[in-house]
C-alpha cells in the first residue's frame, strides 16, 4: 500500500502534526484502561483455573469453555460494537463498556456452577471486545502522527502490564484457601472502576464529528482541548456519512463494498496467527511448564510474563524507527523458531524450557502492538472502529478456538504435538505478513482510505 504524508498549508499546525500536549498524554493513559483490564482478566484466569477445576468439578469440556468464553465474548463485542461505534460515536460507548466490566467482574465472586462462570465471562468479553475499537479509534483520531504508532502499541503494552500484574496478584492470593479463585476473579473489577472514573470528560472525536457533518462541534473540541493554534481545516476533508438510525451493522457490508477487503483479510489473518497460539499457551502455561518438568510453575509463569512486558516495550520503542513491516515479519520469525525448538528439541533443563517460553512471549509481545496499529491506520474515520472490530472479532475466533481445543489436543497429541500445531500457525502468519504487510509509519491520517489495496512498500 503506497502511502504519502501531507500537512496543511494553513497558518496553524494540522491535527496530525500538533505539538504533544498534556491532553494527548491523558488520552493515551485513559485509553490503556480497557486493554489493561483485558490482560488482567485473562492472566488471572491462568492462575485461578487450576483452583477452579476441582472447586467446580470441571471436566475437560468445561475447562475449555471457561478458558475460552471470554474470548468468544470479545468476538461478539468487536463485531457488534465496532460498527455501532462508527454509527453513534466513540464517547458514550467509551464509558458504558467499562461500567459493564465492573458489574460482571464483581458477580464472578458468587458463582456456584460452571455455566454461571461461563456466562459472566462471556459478558465480560463482550464489554472488552467493545472497548478495542472504541479506544483505538479515539486514540488514532486524537493524537498526532508521531505519537500514533507508540500510542497504539501502548494499548498492547497496557494489556501486557495488566496480564503481568494479574499473575503476581493471583500468585499472592493463592494462600486465601478454597475461595482464593473467587478473590482472584473479582479483583479485576478494581482496575476497571479506576479507569472508568478517569474516562470522565474525554471528548468525542472531532474527526468522527466531522465525518457526520458536525463541523462546528468538531472545531469546538479542537479549540477546547488542543488550542486555538491548531488548524482544523483538514476536518473539512473528512468523507461525510449521512446520519442514519439503526444498529450500525450496515458498516459490515459497507467496508467490503468500498474496497477494503484486502486490508480486512490482512489485519484479521496476522492477528489470528499471533494470538491463536499465544492465548492458548498463556491460558495453560503453568500446566505446560509442569509437563516439561518445571517445578515452580507459578513463579516461572510470573517471570515469563514480566519479560513479555519488556518485549512490547521494545516494540513500542522501535515501531516508528524500523517501521511496521520489518517489526511484524521479524517477530513472526522469532516466535516460530522458539515454538519449533520447544516442539522438537530434547529439553532436559528447566532453565532452557523457561528461556524458550520466555523468548516466545517476548517476541510475540513485541509484534503484538501492531494489532492496533495496522487496523487503525488502514481504515478511514467512518469505518475505523468497524475495521478494528472485525479484526478483533476474527482474532478472537482463533484465540477462543485454540484455547478451547488445547486441553483436548494435549490429551491426544501431548504438549509437544500441540506446540507443533502452533508452529504451523505462526509460520502461516509469517508468510501472509511477508506478502501483504504494508509500511504505514509516515501516513497522514487524512490520507487513509485514498488507496484500498495493500502491497509492500
TrEMBL record:
It comes from the Bacteria. This is MFS transporter. The chain crosses the membrane at residues 35-56, 62-82, 94-112, 118-139, 151-169, 181-202, 260-280, 300-319, 326-345, 415-437. Coiled coil: none annotated. It holds the Pfam family Sugar_tr. Keywords: Membrane, Transmembrane, Transmembrane helix. It comes from Streptomyces prunicolor. It is found in: Cell membrane. Residues 27-441 form the Major facilitator superfamily (MFS) profile domain. Belongs to the major facilitator superfamily. Sugar transporter (TC 2.A.1.1) family. InterPro entries: MFS_dom, MFS_sugar_transport-like, MFS_Sugar_Transporters, MFS_trans_sf, Sugar_transporter_CS. The keyword Transmembrane helix applies. It is a multi-pass membrane protein.
Amino acid at each position: 500500500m503506497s502511502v504519502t504524508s501531507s500537512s496543511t498549508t494553513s497558518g496553524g499546525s494540522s491535527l496530525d502534526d500538533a505539538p504533544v500536549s498534556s491532553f494527548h498524554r491523558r488520552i493515551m493513559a485513559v485509553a490503556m484502561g480497557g486493554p489493561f483490564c483485558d490482560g488482567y482478566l485473562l492472566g488471572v484466569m491462568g492462575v485461578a483455573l487450576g483452583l477452579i477445576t476441582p472447586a467446580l468439578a470441571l471436566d475437560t469440556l468445561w475447562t475449555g469453555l471457561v478458558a475460552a468464553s471470554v474470548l468468544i465474548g470479545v468476538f461478539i463485542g468487536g463485531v457488534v460494537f465496532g460498527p455501532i461505534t462508527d454509527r453513534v460515536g466513540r464517547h458514550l460507548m467509551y464509558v458504558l463498556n467499562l461500567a459493564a466490566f465492573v458489574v460482571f467482574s464483581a458477580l464472578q465472586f458468587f458463582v456456584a456452577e460452571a455455566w454461571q462462570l461461563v456466562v459472566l465471562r462471556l459478558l465480560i468479553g463482550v464489554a472488552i471486545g467493545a472497548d478495542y475499537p472504541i479506544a483505538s479509534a479515539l486514540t488514532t483520531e486524537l493524537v498526532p502522527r508521531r505519537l500514533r504508532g507508540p500510542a497504539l502499541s501502548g494499548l498492547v503494552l497496557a494489556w501486557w502490564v495488566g496480564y503481568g500484574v494479574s499473575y503476581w496478584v493471583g500468585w499472592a492470593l493463592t494462600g486465601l484457601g478454597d475461595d482464593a479463585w473467587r478473590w482472584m476473579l473479582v479483583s479485576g473489577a478494581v482496575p476497571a472502576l479506576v479507569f472508568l472514573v478517569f474516562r470522565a470528560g474525554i471528548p468525542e472525536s472531532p474527526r468522527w464529528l466531522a465525518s457526520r457533518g458536525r463541523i462546528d462541534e468538531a472545531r469546538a473540541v479542537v479549540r477546547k482541548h488542543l488550542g486555538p493554534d491548531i488548524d482544523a481545516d483538514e476536518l473539512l476533508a473528512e468523507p461525510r456519512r449521512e446520519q442514519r438510525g439503526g444498529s450500525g451493522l450496515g458498516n459490515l457490508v459497507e467496508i467490503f463494498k468500498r474496497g477494503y477487503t484486502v486490508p480486512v483479510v490482512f489485519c484479521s489473518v496476522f492477528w489470528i496467527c499471533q494470538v491463536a497460539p499465544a492465548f492458548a499457551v498463556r491460558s495453560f502455561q503453568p500446566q505446560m511448564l509442569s509437563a516439561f518438568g518445571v517445578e515452580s510453575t507459578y513463579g516461572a509463569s510470573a517471570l515469563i510474563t514480566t519479560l513479555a512486558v519488556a518485549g512490547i516495550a521494545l516494540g513500542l520503542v522501535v515501531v516508528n524507527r524500523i517501521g511496521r513491516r520489518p517489526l511484524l515479519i521479524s517477530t513472526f520469525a522469532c516466535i516460530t523458531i522458539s515454538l519449533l525448538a520447544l516442539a522438537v528439541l530434547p529439553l532436559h533443563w528447566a532453565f532452557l524450557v523457561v528461556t524458550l517460553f520466555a523468548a516466545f512471549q517476548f517476541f510475540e509481545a513485541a509484534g503484538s502492538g501492531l494489532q492496533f496499529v495496522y487496523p487503525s491506520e488502514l481504515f478511514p474515520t467512518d469505518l475505523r472502529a468497524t475495521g478494528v472490530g472485525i479484526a478483533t472479532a476474527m482474532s478472537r475466533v482463533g484465540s477462543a478456538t485454540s484455547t478451547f481445543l488445547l486441553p483436548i489436543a494435549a490429551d491426544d497429541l501431548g504438549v509437544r504435538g500441540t506446540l507443533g500445531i502452533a508452529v504451523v500457525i505462526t509460520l502461516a502468519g509469517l508468510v501472509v505478513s511477508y506478502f501483504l504487510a504494508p509500511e504505514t509509519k509516515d501516513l497522514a491520517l487524512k490520507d487513509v482510505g485514498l488507496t484500498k489495496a495493500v502491497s509492500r512498500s
